[in-house]
Amino acid sequence: MNFGAQSGRETMPVRLLALLWLLVSAALIWSSWPQIGTLAGWDPDDALRLVQLRDFLNGQSWFDTTQYRMNRPDGAPMHWSRLVEVPLALFILILRPLTGQMWAEILAGIAVPLLLLGWISYMLAGIATKIASREAGVAAALITLSSGALLLQLRPMRIDHHGWQIAMAVLALSTLFRTDVRKAGIVLGLALAVWLHISLEGAPMTAAFFLFLGIGWVRGSAVQGRLFWTITSFAVCTVLLFFGTQAQGLYAATYCDTISPPHMFGIASAALVMIPATYVQPDRWEIRLGVAALAGGLALALLLAMAPQCVGGAFGGMDPLVRTYWYSNVTEGLPIWHQPWRVALNLSAGLVAGAISWFLLSARLRGDARRQLLTIGFFVFFGVLLSLLVVRTISVATAFAIPVTASFIAVLFRHYRQAKIPASKIGLIAAILVLLVPGAAISSLVKALPDGGNVSTAKAKTKAADVLCQSALSIRALGSLPKGNFLSTFDMGPTILAQTPHSVLASSHHRNEQAMHDHIQIFRSSPDSAYQLLKARGIDYLALCPAETELAIYARKDPGGLWAQMAKGKIPAWLEPLGSRGEGIKVWRVR
Q1: What angle do CA 478, 82, 77 make, to 5 degrees?
Q2: Beta pairing class for 485-487 and 503-504
Q3: Is 358 helix (H, G, I), strand (E, B) or coil?
C-alpha cells in the first residue's frame, strides 16, 4: 500500500504543476528584478560566475578556468567546473543575435535557475506521487515552490553551482524508487558523478548512497543489479568528466576541493573490486562484507597515501592567516549552532517538518510503504546530520524531506475529507497549512519574539547602508576611474570584476591563497609595511565600504594596522583621497 491512497492509479497532474511553476516563476522574476536588471546576482559567487562565463564566451579555453583579472599578472586558479556554464552559454549564444549581449545574459540568468526549479519540483512531486498519492505529489510541488531553503539557490540570477547540486541530489534520490534497476543504476551513477564533478561538497552524500546500497547488498536484499549498474555508471562517467575537463589528465595538479588524480585512483580501485563482485554475487554475506570493506579501504588508503593534505577536507592545508581572518568567518561553512538563531530556525523549518512527518508516518505504516519510508528516512536523517555540521548543505536535506512531508499532508487531507466535526476540520487545515509552508510559520513565530530593541534596529540600518554601498549599481560607478588594479574587501572583488573593467587582488575564493594572504596582511600591517605590499602587488586604488564586516575584523584584531588607522581618520600621505563613488564607496589612489 502507498502512504496516502490506493496504489496503481496515481498520476501526477502535470498541467497543474506547470501552472504552479509559472506563477511562482513570475513572482520570483518580479521580486528579483533589482538583481536581474543589474546582472548583480545574489552573492560574490554569482558575480564571479558571470565573469567566468564571459571569459569563456570570449575565447578562454574550456580547460583553463583561471581568472586573469585577479592576482595579476599570474591570475587566480579557480576550482569551478565549466559544466555549469554550458547551459548558460547556450542560452546566450542563441539569444545574443536577437537581443544583444546584456539581455541575453539577463534571460539566461532568469531561465536556467527557474528551469532547474521546475525540474526539481517535478522530480520531488514524482517521488511523492510514487510513494503516496496524487495529492502528495501536488503538496510536494507546493512545498518545493515555496521553500526558502530551496528558493535561495534557485531564484533568477542564482547562476552558481548550488542549484545544480540540489538537482543532482534529487535525481539520485528519485532513482531509488524506479523499478527498472539497470536504468535506475545508470542514472544514479551519472547523477553522483556529475554532482562530485561540480563540487566535492557532494562527497558525503555520495558516500551515503553507496553505503545504503552496500548495506542492502551485504544483507542480501535485491539490490545486486542496481548496485552493479550504479558503480559501473559512476566510474565511467567520472572518468569521462575528468579527462573531458583536465587537459593534463592524470598528470594534473592535486587539489582537495575537486576530483584530482588521487581521487581517480581511489574510485578506480574501488570499482575494480566491486564491479566483478556485484556481477558474480557471492553467496555468503561475510564474503560480501569483506569485499565491500576491501573496496572502501583500498580507495581510502590510496587517497590518503597520494594526498595526505586532503585528510582535513578541501580546506585542510589552508594558510593559517587566511583561515583565521576569512574562512572562520564564512558562516555558511560552519555548524548550525554558529548561525544566528533566527536564521537557523528559518532555514531548518522544512527539515523539522520532514522529521516530524517521518516519525508520525512510521508509526502507522507496514510492508512496502514502510520500506519506502525507511529508504527516504535514511537520506533525510543523514542530511540532517550534515546540515548540523555544515549549514550550507541544508538545501539538499530539505529537498529530501519534502516527499515525506507531502505524504503526511496527503494523510491529513484524507482525514479532513472524512471528518464530520468542524473543529477537527479546522485543526486539520491548520496543520496542513503549517506543513505546506513551515518557513512562513516559523518566521511568524520569530517575528513575535523580542528583537533586542534599538540595538537591533541600529544594526539593521547599518547593514542596509552597507548592502547599498556594495550593490552592483554602486560599484558600477568605479568604472569612471582610469583602468587599474584594486584592493577592496573580498566580497566586493567579484562585483568589481563583473561591473567594471578593473582588476582586483583577491576575492573570497580559496585557491588564490597567497593573494588572499597578502590582501589580509595589507589591512592588518602598519601603514609603512602595507605600502610596501601595495607597491609589490601593483595596487592602484583602494575602494572600501567603511561599514563592511571584514573591515571591522581588522579594526578589532589589529588596532595598529592600516585599516584601523584609516578608520580613525589617520590617512597615510601615500594615499590620495578621491572622494566617494556610488553609494558611499570611499576611494583612494596609491601615490
Answers
A1: 60
A2: parallel
A3: helix
What percent of the residues of the chain are helix, what percent strand, and what percent coil, each to the nearest 5? 70, 5, 25
Distance between CA atoms of 231 and 242, rounded to whole angstroms?
16
| Grid-cell match 586532503, residue found | 310
Express each pLDDT in 268-294 by its tens digit.
999 999 999 999 889 899 999 999 999
The proportion of the chain whose per-residue pLDDT surpasses 90, expressed as a percent, equals 73
Distance of CA 354 to the CA centre of its chain: 20
Q: How many residues does the chain have?
A: 591
**Average pLDDT value for residue range 506-532:** 95
pLDDT for position 1? 40
CA 459, CA 283: separation in Å to the nearest integer? Answer: 65
Q: How many CA atoms lie within 13 A of 423 on its CB side?
A: 0
CA–CA dist 350, 138 (Å, integer): 16
Question: 20 falls in which pLDDT band (50, 70, 90)?
Answer: very high
On the question of pLDDT at 338 being above 60, the answer is yes
Alpha carbon 6 to its chain centroid, in Å, reads 37
Are the beta carbons of 316 and 510 closer than 8 angstroms? no
Instruction: Tell me which residue has cell 505546506.
Output: 436
| Helix residue spans in 250-366 (DSSP H) | 261-280, 285-306, 320-325, 341-347, 349-362
Cis, peptide link before residue 73, omega less than 30° from 0: yes
Give the Cα-Cα-Cα angle 51, 548, 30 (nearest 5 degrees): 55
Give the three-state DSSP class for 576.
Answer: strand
Q: What are phi and psi of 588, to 5 degrees?
A: -130, 145
Residue 262 has pLDDT above 50, yes or no: yes
Distance CA 140, CA 118 (A): 12
d(CA 546, CA 585): 8
- As given in the structure block, the three cell numbers for residue 34 are 533589482
Whole-angstrom distance, CA of residue 75 vs CA of residue 577: 28
User: Is the distance from CB of 541 to CB of 587 less than 8 angstroms?
Assistant: yes
Residue-wise pLDDT for 166-219, tens only, equals 999 999 999 999 989 999 999 999 999 999 999 998 999 999 999 999 999 999
pLDDT, tens digit (0-9, with 9 covering 90-100), for 91-112: 999 999 999 999 999 999 999 9
**What span, in angstroms and rounded, lies between the C-alpha atoms of 428 and 425?**
5
DSSP string, 455-518: HHHHHHHHHHHHHHHTSHHHHHGGGGSPS-EEE--TTTHHHHHHHSS-EES--S-TTSHHHHHH
> What is the average pLDDT value for the chain, to the nearest integer?
91
What is the crossing angle of helices 162-175 and 101-131, to 10°? Answer: 30
Report the pLDDT averaged over residues 364-372.
80
Burial of 143 (0-12, 13-18, 19+ CB in 10 A): buried
pTM for the structure as a whole: 0.93
pLDDT number for residue 4: 46
Report long-range pairs for 93-97 (Cβ below 8 Å, ≥24 apart).
93/57
Of the two residues 312 and 428, the one the predictor is more confident about is: 428
